Amino acid sequence: MELDFLGAAGEVGRSSVLLSTDQNIMFDCGLKIHNKSDPHLYPTPSPLPVDAVVVSHPHLDHVGYLPSVFEHGNPQVIATPPTKEIGELLLLDSAKIIIEEYGTLPYKRSSHKKAMESFRVQGYHQKTMLGDSALTLFDAGHIPGSAQVLVEYEGKKVLYSGDFKLSETRMHKAAEIVPDVDVLITESTYANRDHPNRQDLEVQLAQRAKEVISNGGHLLLPAFAVGRTQELISILKSQDPELPIWVDGMGVEASRIVAGYPSYIKDARHFRQSMESVNIVREPRDRSRVLKEPSVIVSTAGMLQGGPAMGYLLSLSEQSEIIFTGYCVEGTNGYNLLQNGYVEVDGEQVRPSIPIRYLDFSAHASRSELFEYVEKVNPGKVFCIHGDSANCTQFAEELKVEGFDAYAPKLAERITI
Ligand SMILES: [Zn+2]
Ligand SMILES: [Zn+2]
Q1: For residue 163, how far is its CA from the centre of ligand 2 (angstroms)?
Q2: Can you name the residues that pair with 344 across neighbouring β-strands?
Q3: Which of these, 172, 139, 171, lies nearest to 274 by C-alpha position?
Q4: Lowest-confidence range among 32-41, 213-222, 320-329?
Q5: pLDDT at site 172
Q6: What is the 221 CA–ligand 1 centroid distance (Å)?
Q7: What Å distances lie between residue 50 and 7, 27, 77, 226, CA to CA?
Q8: Is 2 exposed, middle or buried (0-12, 13-18, 19+ CB in 10 A)?
């Protein structure tokens, strides 16, 4: 068997790994489009024709470049039901963003259409045979429908973690453990640090919301459409069911889809009730209503790259506040606002005068969870990807000290396993 590391080797973004058994199985095919100054947008092309692509979850760094595979073939695409439905929504959106930012699509429109038509859904724990290779998905605890992928071939087990979280959150149970694999390919995003206690963060968030609202302002929460939007709604409504919340942007549609898959969320009843009690922005003119009364606004984009959140930021009163709850890639408006206090509007730097905060509600495993995961999975060999270069290398070095055969592969490296 062979592994080709086509992306996310020493970086976060453009995830793609090819596993060759009797079949060529691609794990993810993502993009890195959030930072315009970074020219490395896409994974390196697959050296072999692809028989199947497994999409671990529908974040753009894992699914955004999927149509490109259909330029040279007609693979089947395997994903959980929520990943398929949300993936289709996000692929349409990513095509729009790429055209806006870069002028043209890096694949034909017909490839986009073929990708949409080639999804085959597979639930957790169901086994599919691809030739003589058996493929099973396991809950990754990252976002609704996120999966770890296990391939078994000629008595060997290869596990691809995708993005995962090993502790419970408001929306999800912890990632499942698939023990004693021969090869593990794991994410390494936060190999260098632990996250703060989640219960404390939930309380802090609700306190900020109440305080800002009682001062007559708006609390703006820029959020990823999938995962974070639903989690923030759930958290706020658990902490205080009376909080006035508006939801805007693509998170509205993503939440509707998520609510349709109750078996993929921890407390579906609570989530449904929470969704019923928030206000939804259905058309642009609703936005002037949002700004009339104090409230919490949960809106895309999480890194303030596009989406209605940016419009709100520029219209908020002095009593308002903005809190980021997720990762902001360098070069994005979110990053610039957090680090340097400005956003870019039509090429000009604008410095909002409201307080800017960050609460670390990560959907990724923390440093201790990453080590615990590797220990429990107990792999014969482990490859560390999906983290910046220093994190991947350092994680592999530390795992070696713990007695594991660990390595941080380089981009486009082919390794026989
Ligand atoms: Zn993700
Ligand atoms: Zn990712």
Answers
A1: 5
A2: 349
A3: 171
A4: 32-41
A5: 95
A6: 19
A7: 15, 11, 10, 27
A8: middle
* Domains defined along the chain, listed by start: 2-193+363-416 (3.60.15.10), 198-358 (3.40.50.10890)
Residue 62 is encoded by which pair of tokens?
Answer: 């894992």
Measured from the alpha carbon of residue 145, the closest ligand is 1
Give yes or no for a contact between 162 and 140, defined as CB atoms under 8 angstroms apart. Answer: yes
Query: How many Å lie between the centroid of ligand 2 and the Cα of residue 118?
Result: 22
Query: Could you give the residue ranges of the DSSP H alpha helices within 217-355?
Result: 228-239, 251-259, 268-276, 286-290, 309-315, 333-340
Separation of CA 8 and ligand 2 centre (Å): 9
pLDDT of residue 93: 85
**Residues whose CB is less than 8 angstroms from the CB of residue 55 and which lie 6 or more positions away in sequence, other chains included:** 28, 29, 62, 63, 66, 77, 78, 79, 83, 84, 87
> What pLDDT sits at residue 35?
66
Least Cα distance to 11 among 395, 402, 392 occurs for 392
Neighbours of 102 (CB within 10 A): 12
Nearest to 183 by CA among 211, 155, 163: 155
Taken as a whole, the chain contains a residue count of 417
| Site of tokens 């956003």 | 343
Minimum-distance ligand to the CA of 386? 2
Span 267-307, pLDDT tens digits: 999 999 999 999 999 999 999 999 999 999 999 999 998 88
| 3-class DSSP state of 320 | coil
Ligand number nearest to the C-alpha of 329: 2
Q: How far is the CA of 353 from the centre of ligand 1 (A)?
A: 31
Residue 63 alpha carbon to ligand 1 centre in Å: 10
Type of residue numbered 249:
G
Amino acid 42 reads Y
Would you state the structure tokens that stand for residue 386, as one six-digit string?
């999906």
- Alpha carbon separation from 170 to 142, 249, 265, 346, 388 (Å, rounded): 11, 22, 9, 38, 28
- From the CA of 62, how far away is ligand 2's center (Å)? 6
pLDDT tens per residue, range 24-76? 999 999 998 766 677 788 999 999 999 999 999 999 999 999 999 999 999 99
State residue 5 phi and psi, 5-degree precision: -90, 100
How far away, in angstroms, is 142 Cα from ligand 2 center? 10
Closest ligand relative to 31 C-alpha: 2
Q: State pTM to two decimals.
A: 0.95
